[in-house]
Structure formats: C-alpha cells, structure tokens
Amino acid sequence: MGQPLEGIKVIDLSRILAGPLCTMTLGDFGAQVLKVESPAGDETRGWIPPVTAHGVSTYYWSVNRNKESIIADFTNADHLTRLQELIQDADVLVENFRPGVLSKFGMDYESLKRQNPRLIYCSISGFGEQQGAELPGFDLLVQAVGGLMSITGEPEGTPSKVGVALVDVLAAQNAVAGILLALRERESSGQGQRVSINLLSSVLAGMTNQTSSTLATGQSPARMGNAHPSIAPYETFRASDGVVAIAVGNDRQFSALCHQLGAPALADDPRFLTNADRVAHRVELKILIENVTTQRSAATWAEQLMSAGVPAGKVNTIAEALQFAQDLGLEPVAEMKDPETGEPTTHIASPIGLSRTAAQYRTPPPAHGQHQELFELKTYR
C-alpha cells in the first residue's frame, strides 16, 4: 500500500534539528527527501560524543533517516545551476538559513517560484524575517528570550532550559503542519506558496495556557518547579528512593489520594476542599503529602495510586521510559537493516500512528554525499 506522501519530492537545504526533523517526518510517510549539504556537511555530523554503534553522531542519526545526501557548493556556479534544475522538479523545499542569505544565490522563494510555481518553500528562522532577521536562531537563546526559561526551574533557583531542544522540535512540527496544509491547498489551486516558521512564534504558541494567562491578566507567570499554576496537587513528591509524580485533576481523585495516604481527613480539611482551596494552600498540602510519600518507594506509590484511580507515575530515566513504552505495546523503537550493508540499525519510531499507511523506515541516515550521482542527473528522479 502506498504512503500518504509517496511521489512528493523534497529538497532539504536545512541542517541541525528543526529542518531535518521536519523533512525526516515527511520521509517517514513516503516523501523522497534529498538532503543537500555543503562540502563541510551538516554540523551535527561532528557533534560527538555520543555516537551510535556505527560511529555516527547520535544527534545527526536522530533526524536524518529516509534521506539521500548530495554535496553542493553554493559558491560554485555549476553546482547552483544543477541544484536549481533539481528544484524545478521538486514539490517542497525546506531551508533554515539566516533570512536573506539564499537570495544572494538566487535560491530565495521569489526567484525559485518563477521556475517552479508549484513549489512549496518552507523557511524556518529564529526570529522571523523582519527586524529579527539578523538574530541567531539557537534553541537555548529562544528559550531564554521567548520566556520559556522564566517559567522553568525551581522558584528559588535560576531560570532553566528544558532538557532537550524543545523549541526546535515545536518548530519542526509546525513546519510539517504548514507543508501539509500547503500541499492540500495546492490540490485545488495548482499553486505552491511559502510556509514561514520561526522559533520565537513557535515557543510563544507552544506555551499555550501560560501565554494565555499573561494576555488575560497582564501578569507573567513565575517559576513553580514541577507544580501547576491552576491545579493542586499536581507536581512531584519525594519518595523513599526517588520522586513520584501525582496529578490530581478533580475532587474525587483528591479524596482517593487522601485515603491511599492514610489521611482521609485531609479531603474534608477546609484548606483543601476545592481545587481553588488546594491551589491557595499548595505549600502546606505538599508538606503533608511528602510526610507520607517519603516512607515508601516511588514505584510502590505509583502502582498503589494508579490502582486507586489517582494518576501517578515514577519519574523515569529515558531508558526506563523507553522500556515503559515498550511494555505498553507502543513500540517506541524502530528497527531496520541498512539496505547497502545489511547491518541492523535502531531508531526512535515516529509518534504518528496511521492505521493503513503507517510510517516506514527504509534507509538509515546517509553518509555525507552518499548519493552524489543524483546531482549529475540534474532532475530529481
């Protein structure tokens, strides 16, 4: 059975994370992705350690499967001509150069759409293409100036970044959505268009309820550690051997929690009768809960509370989280054989589940310039 994006040809001029993750997602669902790299290659090829069993940067490996790689030097006129010929036959182009750079080489949207009016041209930038065009779009910087760090970390501590380049991941997902919307619209109009994604807008939209709260109240939320600004108890609690997360969403669950803690009277305490009461007295409530949770292990509490209908879970390591997902039948790891070497490879599976046209894992991330012969063809087969 064919995949949803079978026959869609993608020119990937991006590197690092947001762009490559976007194009890998398209490739997982059938698009033919041509990764165009400079002679120096995607920077993440050199971001080591750690490395895979094949000696490849795990960072590069994570976002570049289902692609073919060619090398193009933008300062070489012949290379530019060949690349533009490839683009004439493409459906989608994804790039994350600093705004204005590609126009110097005739690779901007306005130039390319004259050659290929059906082209969907996706640009990913840090801060847009106007006053923020010259600002460097690094995830850490965007987490800082975008406000995410201001609400991440303990109240008494310093602002903290999220433990992964989350803004890049959000931007990648937005880019995929934008490209799919443009492809759908092209079915009726026959015309391509430009898709513009920037990291700052992605993080502002991604903070959802926090940005909405700021707009409504005029007050910026403060760091609360693992607590929730609108629900309590909804955070992490110390156990005898680690940390357990407890997510109480209503009065019934709070009553069940109190019974499991051996303190049913807490449910009738005037300080904790309603969610609003519990939010107002979250500090006292956390102390009372931790007086009990520290007596047993995190795993024990998680099992006991979940059995009683109280959402709870041990704070896992990533390795434990992968095993947990596997135990739930979610198949978080995809395995394939390299079609050229026959060697087995492992990858994090796509989180998108389709019942008839599921993601396929055809080829591992390519070596630098592994498919250079495609450059000589001048058309994207």
UniProtKB/TrEMBL annotation:
Entry EC number(s): 2.8.3.-
Alphabetized UniProt keyword annotations: Transferase
Any one GO molecular-function label of the UniProt entry: CoA-transferase activity
Domain of life the protein comes from: Bacteria
Gene3D superfamilies on file: Crotonobetainyl-coa:carnitine coa-transferase, domain 1 (3.40.50.10540), formyl-coa transferase, domain 3 (3.30.1540.10)
InterPro entries associated with the record: CoA-transferase_III_domain (IPR050483), CoA-Trfase_fam_III (IPR003673), CoA-Trfase_III_dom3_sf (IPR044855), CoA-Trfase_III_dom_1_sf (IPR023606)
Signal peptide: none
Pfam families, sorted: CoA_transf_3
UniProt protein name: CoA transferase
Species name: Glutamicibacter ectropisis
